[in-house]
Amino acid sequence: MGGILPYQKIIGSGLIIGVPTLGTDDHSGCFQAASYDLRVGQIIAEKEVITGDQANPYYLPSGGMVTLLTQEKLSLTDKVAAIVFPPNKLAEQGLLVLNPGHIDPGYEGSLSVRVINLRKVDFPLRIGIKIFTCIFFDLQEPTEKPYRKREPEADRLDRLCTNASETMSRTLFETQAEQIKKIVREDLEKTFVGKDALVSQWLRAVWTNLWKVPILILVLFGVWIVVNVATFVTPGQILDWVKPDWRQQFKFVFEADKQQDATRDLDQPKLQRNKAGQREERGQAEKKNAPH
């Protein structure tokens, strides 16, 4: 029956080659309840292979990337597979492990991984630090297609060095500096207006609307004239400004109205006397006709 291998089945299984000597601190620190912590054995920075010790770390610059090889080698049978995970401690410290994953039954050799420093400062990489947590799985039956590809260690180192030199091993900013500058420059040009461009736009706007200034002045002057005329000029003054024949016609109309008013005033007493006489005559006639 398959399942995850516990400590007692890992330690004497022969699945790991190059484990620390029994009884040492590294030995007890690498074996866990159901896993094993693989350690850094070599550091490949571009075409340089670093095999130092814990006392002399390799300082990975901020944004820099290198390839790591494990000290231990795996020797999986046709009935055992494995999965590796980066320790959580490395992520907390800002070291990103790029390509851990599944290992097929039948694989033999060390594991390689690409890491990048996401810290703002250099990261001290030391030989012997834990880089992978490896979990072993026992299959229900042996696979019929185990991993049988074998690559000499020297050829593998040459391949990893070549790949490292062709990929980004310097900091991200150094490799992408021109592209980053271009993006920032384009963004600034879209967002902000330079001093020269601002002055040019202002002059263009003034010149385009310059013809509107005289019209505005004439309109304002006309409004001023209308307001003053309505406030201070009498109808008689207006008649003095119009044509003489128009003024005479208006004068004739005014004089005719005045004559009618005067005539009506003169005839008013006469009309009142006639009405009084008519009332007196009607009174006398009524008295004569009244019965005695």
Structural notes for this entry:
This protein folds into 2 domains: 3-170, Deoxyuridine triphosphatase (dUTPase) (Deoxyuridine 5'-Triphosphate Nucleotidohydrolase, Chain A, Distorted Sandwich); 233-287. The protein is built from 9 helices and 14 strands. The protein has helices at 7-11, 25-30, 88-93, 153-166, 172-191, 195-208, 212-232, 235-241, 244-289; strands at 3-4, 16-17, 36-45, 48-50, 58-60, 65-70, 73-75, 80-85, 95-97, 102-103, 108-109, 112-117, 123-125, 130-138. A hairpin with a 2-residue loop joins strand 3 (36-45) and strand 4. It is elongated.
Write the layout of secondary structure elements.
Blueprint: E1 3-4, H1 7-11, E2 16-17, H2 25-30, E3 36-45, E4 48-50, E5 58-60, E6 65-70, E7 73-75, E8 80-85, H3 88-93, E9 95-97, E10 102-103, E11 108-109, E12 112-117, E13 123-125, E14 130-138, H4 153-166, H5 172-191, H6 195-208, H7 212-232, H8 235-241, H9 244-289
Antiparallel strand pairs: 1-14, 2-7, 3-4, 3-6, 3-14, 5-13, 6-12, 7-11, 8-10, 8-14, 9-12
Brief summary:
The chain is an alpha+beta fold. The protein has helices at about 5-10, 25-30, 90-95, 155-165, 170-190, 195-210, 210-230, 235-240, 245-290; strands at about 5, 15, 35-45, 50, 60, 65-70, 75, 80-85, 95, 100-105, 110, 110-115, 125, 130-140.
Helix tally equals 9
Helix-strand makeup class = alpha+beta
**What is the CATH architecture annotation of the largest domain?**
Distorted Sandwich
User: How many β-strands, per DSSP?
Assistant: 14
Percent helix among the residues?
Answer: 40-55%
Span between termini:
157 Å
Main beta sheet: 9 strands, antiparallel
Sequence of secondary-structure elements: EHEHEEEEEEHEEEEEEHHHHHH
Give the C-alpha Rg: 56 Å
* CATH 4th-level superfamily of the largest domain: Deoxyuridine triphosphatase (dUTPase)
The proportion of residues in beta strands is: 15-25%
Q: What characteristic shape results from the CA principal axes?
A: elongated
* Average pLDDT over all residues: 78
CATH uppermost class of the largest domain: Mainly Beta
Poorly predicted sequence stretches spanning 5 or more consecutive residues: none
The CATH topology of the largest domain is Deoxyuridine 5'-Triphosphate Nucleotidohydrolase, Chain A
